[in-house]
TrEMBL record:
SUPFAM superfamilies: Bet v1-like. Gene3D superfamilies: 3.30.530.20. CDD domains: SRPBCC_CalC_Aha1-like (cd07814). Belongs to the AHA1 family. This is Activator of Hsp90 ATPase homologue 1/2-like C-terminal domain-containing protein. Pfam families: AHSA1. It comes from Mycobacteroides saopaulense. It comes from the Bacteria. Residues 19-145, 169-274 form the Activator of Hsp90 ATPase homologue 1/2-like C-terminal domain.
């Protein structure tokens, strides 16, 4: 089955996953998935008639004040999940529908977001933004569904943290040399002063600012624990709407048959803070290409480390 072509009043995004529908549904409604959006829901709350809300960054350019109110309008486990999305200021009244379609070898997951007013310039801008949001959400489903064949257990992934993992066909020492290289760090931030990776060492990085939350783009990091070639733990603080959030960044390298399982974990988010939850989602999306870049360097694309 292929995704239907959406018109200007809707957005349709789809992806095929090599897993049965019951497993895809479990990922969609898992605590890790739900915590990306709201703290109002748990797995038992995903039912027709149940309501929830979320708070994110205000976007005046699309007449969105930052709060969305939702109600499930149709929930059929393993088949369909739909909800109505409105705003307190009555600027938006949209419908979101997830459907799961069995195909040979797995399940195609489709999300349709409709109700956009083609005559409203703000809706036109929002429609483009929504497509990007659901594309990231599909990638998130892939992360939740992926289970390392090596048997390596992932770190916790909940409202206070997120973890991304990747397996590489290289020994831990080789992966370590990439992760701690100036070339790799320079690829993922704009500027840095990386010296020796050792306990007590400090690292200044300059990256992209996030004006909506008051983040200027400069981060001072300190290495708390370094065990070569197994573990790197560092801490840093970022301002979020006038407050300070202290985060911990951890790299874990585990030798397994045929290579190395690498885990990237960022923890310290406040699950009670809507803005913390949204920053967590933004940083998760930004971290996905990081592991791909490790693989590229390992495979020799670009300059070898």
């Amino acid at each position: 089955m292929t995704a239907a072509r959406d018109d200007l009043t809707s957005v349709t995004v789809g992806q095929f996953f090599p897993y049965p529908a019951v497993q895809v549904w479990r990922a969609m409604t898992s605590p890790a998935s739900l915590s990306d959006w709201t703290t109002d829901l748990d797995q038992n709350s995903v039912a027709t008639g149940k309501s929830f809300s979320f708070t994110t960054f205000p976007m005046p350019e699309v007449n969105f004040g930052g709060r969305g109110d939702c109600e499930f309008t149709d929930v059929v486990p393993h088949e369909r999940l739909a909800y109505r999305f409105t705003t307190p200021e009555n600027s938006l009244n949209l419908q979101v529908t997830w459907t799961l379609h069995a195909e040979p070898g797995g399940t195609r997951l489709l999300v349709v977001h409709d109700g956009f007013d083609v005559a409203d310039p703000a809706h036109v801008r929002l429609r483009a933004l929504v497509r990007e949001i659901w594309t990231v959400a599909m990638s998130r489903m892939g992360e939740l569904l992926a289970v390392p064949g090596t048997g390596a257990e992932p770190p916790p992934d909940d409202a206070t943290s997120f973890s991304l993992g990747e397996f590489y066909n290289y020994p831990p020492r080789t992966v370590w040399n990439v992760v701690t290289s100036k070339e790799f760090v320079g690829d993922v931030v704009n500027e840095h002063d990386l010296g020796a990776v050792q306990e007590g060492g400090r690292l200044t990085v300059t990256t992209y600012p996030i004006p909506l939350v008051g983040f200027g783009g400069r981060v001072e990091m300190q290495f708390l624990e370094v065990r070569e070639p197994e573990l790197i733990v560092c801490t840093f603080e970022i301002p979020i709407m006038g407050g300070i959030t202290a985060l911990t960044l951890t790299w874990r390298l585990r030798p397994v048959d045929g290579g190395t399982q690498l885990w990237f974990t960022l923890s310290g988010f406040d699950p009670q803070s809507p803005l913390n939850r949204q920053v967590r989602s933004v940083l998760r999306g930004g971290a996905i290409p990081v592991l791909s870049r490790v693989g590229e360097l390992l495979e020799g694309r670009g300059h070898r480390v």
